[in-house]
Amino acid sequence: MIDMVSGNIFHCRKHSWPSEEYISRATLQLLDFDSAAPPRQAWRRRLNSHANILKEFSVTFMEALKMMRLGVRLWSYVREEASHGRRAPIDPFTRESCKPSASQGVPLGGMGSGSISRGFRGEFRHMQIVPGICETSPVMANQFSIFISRDGGNKKFSSVLAPGQHEGLGKLGDQGISSWNWNLSGQHSTYHAVFPRAWTIYDGEPDPDLKVSCRQISPFIPHNYKDSSLPSAVFVYTLVNTGKERAKVSLLFTWANSIGGNSHLSGGHVNEPFRGEDGVSGVLLHHKTAKGNPPVTFAVAACETQNVNVTVSPCFGLTDQNRVTAKSIWDTMAEDGSFDLGNFNAGSSVPSLPGETHCAAVSASAWIEPHGKCTVAFSLAWSSPKVKFLKGNTYNRRYTKFYGTSERSAAHIVHDSLMNYKWWEEEIEKWQNPILSDDSLPDWYKFTLFNELYFLVSGGTVWIDGHSPARDNQSTMSQNGHNSRIEEPIKIKVTVATVHSKGDVVIEHESCINGFEDANGNGNGNGLDLDQENSDEEDAAGHNPLQLSTLVDQKPDDSEDVGRFLYLEGVEYVMWCTYDVHFYASYALLALFPKIELSIQRDFAKAVLSEDRRKVKFLADGNCGIRKVKGAVPHDLGTHDPWHEMNAYNIHDTSKWKDLNPKFVLQVYRDFAATGDVSFAVDVWPAVCAAMEYMEQFDKDGDGLIENDGFPDQTYDAWTVHGISAYCGCLWLAALEAAAAMALRLGDKPFADKFKNMFSRAKSAFEEKLWNGSYFNYDSGSSSNSRSIQADQLAGQWYVASSGLPSLFDDHKIKSALQKIFDFNVMKVRGGRMGAVNGMHPNGKVDESCMQSREIWTGVTYGVAATMILSGMEEQAFTTAEGIFTSGWSEDGFGYWFQTPEGWTVDGHYRSLIYMRPLAIWSMQWALSLPKAILEAPKINMMDRMLYVPIRASHNDAGIVRKVANKTKCFSNSVFHCAC
């Protein structure tokens, strides 16, 4: 057993964090109105907590030797990409100047329109307005401050509402933000988070007789595909005067005209005051970005009410070179508590000079009687309507569907945010309260469940409106003036038609992508164009072909069209919708935004049936291959030209990976079973057939079971596999079952029979070669780790149980394997306080054959816990998952809150912060409350030919089904009978 480490984290567990331990009961009672008090179940930190620098992982000497050639090739590739002004999708050599620390908090904004994170101590940081670029350093001019005057001005308090523990503050004679009062110690101030809301309670700081609650609200609302796309947040201040004197309280919101990075001091930025409807007033900050990226406009505003007065200082600077300085606006607020009303008529500022920072300030002031209360609301919005990719197209963001493509729409968004935030909160509470009030769930699980959703905002998400690029930028110019699009026509084979009931996939023609000509000399400007004339002719075998062009490329009804969605594998691994990881993370989207989840699956269905023959050098072995192979599920949707240049990952040839295709089939079936969306199932069925048939080449001995090829050919891309593997083999068994079930539900009995026969043979081979009496061996090879206990060995069982399909194995084998994982991978590592280590030898020692085998992967641990829940092992499940909370989220943990990494080692060194896979915690909630459609799904016995009743369209679905069937001609043996 591994020795226990020192520290409180591994000696006790705190199952709940009572708010009374952070805020006095009296203060909670005073704030118990208008949602000003945080919920009892919340993640909490004191503002005076120290933000430790995080420890990054390092490879061992032997690992470095093994990876030396890969390292040299990767270094060369990173330099080559940099020479073209591009960031390589994986770059372990470049480090951020701002070292990562335990300082994060709930991010701002909805999904897909850029994001801004906010640390628990109040600093705004991690700006991701430009896709794939994260500016980590905080912009310290972005702050809230407070000014309090009592007793006719004889008693005054003022402070920035953030602890003054930052570098660069306190310079003597400075005209910038060092001249402000950074008086807050944070000793009596606390932060509380249940994403997408956060509360900061100032319990008598800086004025002992004033209680202040700042509530941060973002429009992340499940099943709401409009407001959830908005780039905005609201800050609601609740002020309670407990003193005997009337108090004038002024709040100040300052914001720099900056998105960090290259354009921070590049000049040309303009500020402009505005007065809008319903008392909403503020400043627009027009920002000119660098490298030809689309401009950004910020809007900072407050809402004027009967007792709240709003004024602005539209432009101030940070040096004595500026006419209005940071020091002068602070002095004005300290003296008067407001700015001159004439500032609203100032008009646009002179553009900033290179090296100069333009900032803006919005003030809201009110008088509060003794024992009185007051509410003040601010909002921040940003508008960058177009999203531009370096090598590809420019698209309109999702919110432009509702607000248009002008940067000035920020003023309308900030107005609507201030008008609608109460409704947002009502919807958020309706969603969250049933879980937060469920006494059967531990408190740590409740708030961690919601807080892990931070990634859908700050994980680099892009949400576009529609499928076509913006019209005004079809030919993107690079910095040096040359067209950045590939200029030579490259042949891209695209499978477009004829998926027969026998399962044959036929190539119909060749076409090109990104506006190049197809084989017939016809151009297209919309990437992969799968349209082709339908044919009424039957093929030689007498089957009517199912035309893919009318299925996959079919535009949904406008009410169903939610645009297209991308999210990064991680802030450090810049690849869009990495599919082997989406397998774990997708439960969150399916549960909360199912239309987005189906949209992503449709994108991958298109990708399966396409082929891109451009050459790529794979860095692991130095060999070359083609970028995208027909029938193979891509690793990702690309980096610099998503949807059109897929497989940005180039370490291994992922067309030889064994987990991607089964994962596609499993996700498609799960999504179909959960949503009951028949048109989706018909749309993606040709891709399912192609993906399954593609995998048959990896069954070398004809036993129905795929074999691995002696290299890391799956998501554990540093962990070599030989022969049959528990991970990929189990996924393949599950995919066979899911494909058979889907075939039968769509009426394609020949395919169903084929997959059932293969399953029967494969299951016998799998158990014979890997089952050792208590768990499934890592693989069937003879290496030193072939008998290792892999935490993820039942990944396929996890999915079939989540989808309402029969178990892959006998119940006693499933529970035996899970118990082995719990006893060894979980409990033998720091007493179960860290999660499940990926690999463990049967002697109780961690498998250190590679860096990934010795890591604890956060998302995998959540997936293992979900599998335990589905197998009736809830106590073990929550103990397993609690290790991730204890190490990553607890007060005495490693400090990974709101930046949960891919994984960590047993000594707490992380790898890849802000990572997609931890969203898998939502698979635990999925397991705890399976949808009715899953619970009532008809069962299929994979071991015999029992009758399976195909799905029948409901009365409401009849029109949709008939429409799809008519467009797709005749579907052999289908339940959809059309009159073609």
UniProtKB/TrEMBL annotation:
<dbReference type="Pfam" id="PF12215">
    <property type="entry name" value="Glyco_hydr_116N"/>
</dbReference>
<dbReference type="InterPro" id="IPR008928">
    <property type="entry name" value="6-hairpin_glycosidase_sf"/>
</dbReference>
<dbReference type="InterPro" id="IPR052566">
    <property type="entry name" value="Non-lysos_glucosylceramidase"/>
</dbReference>
<protein>
    <recommendedName>
        <fullName>Non-lysosomal glucosylceramidase</fullName>
        <ecNumber>3.2.1.45</ecNumber>
    </recommendedName>
</protein>
<feature type="domain" description="Glycosyl-hydrolase family 116 catalytic region">
    <location>
        <begin position="563"/>
        <end position="924"/>
    </location>
</feature>
<dbReference type="InterPro" id="IPR006775">
    <property type="entry name" value="GH116_catalytic"/>
</dbReference>
<dbReference type="GO" id="GO:0008422">
    <property type="term" value="F:beta-glucosidase activity"/>
</dbReference>
<keyword id="KW-0326">Glycosidase</keyword>
<dbReference type="InterPro" id="IPR014551">
    <property type="entry name" value="B_Glucosidase_GBA2-typ"/>
</dbReference>
<feature type="domain" description="Glycosyl-hydrolase family 116 N-terminal">
    <location>
        <begin position="105"/>
        <end position="424"/>
    </location>
</feature>
<keyword id="KW-0443">Lipid metabolism</keyword>
<comment type="similarity">
    <text>Belongs to the non-lysosomal glucosylceramidase family.</text>
</comment>
<keyword id="KW-0472">Membrane</keyword>
<dbReference type="InterPro" id="IPR012341">
    <property type="entry name" value="6hp_glycosidase-like_sf"/>
</dbReference>
<dbReference type="GO" id="GO:0016020">
    <property type="term" value="C:membrane"/>
</dbReference>
<dbReference type="GO" id="GO:0004348">
    <property type="term" value="F:glucosylceramidase activity"/>
</dbReference>
<feature type="region of interest" description="Disordered">
    <location>
        <begin position="88"/>
        <end position="108"/>
    </location>
</feature>
<dbReference type="GO" id="GO:0005975">
    <property type="term" value="P:carbohydrate metabolic process"/>
</dbReference>
<keyword id="KW-0378">Hydrolase</keyword>
<feature type="region of interest" description="Disordered">
    <location>
        <begin position="523"/>
        <end position="546"/>
    </location>
</feature>
<dbReference type="InterPro" id="IPR024462">
    <property type="entry name" value="GH116_N"/>
</dbReference>
<comment type="function">
    <text>Non-lysosomal glucosylceramidase that catalyzes the hydrolysis of glucosylceramide (GlcCer) to free glucose and ceramide.</text>
</comment>
<dbReference type="GO" id="GO:0006680">
    <property type="term" value="P:glucosylceramide catabolic process"/>
</dbReference>
<feature type="compositionally biased region" description="Acidic residues">
    <location>
        <begin position="530"/>
        <end position="539"/>
    </location>
</feature>
<dbReference type="Pfam" id="PF04685">
    <property type="entry name" value="DUF608"/>
</dbReference>
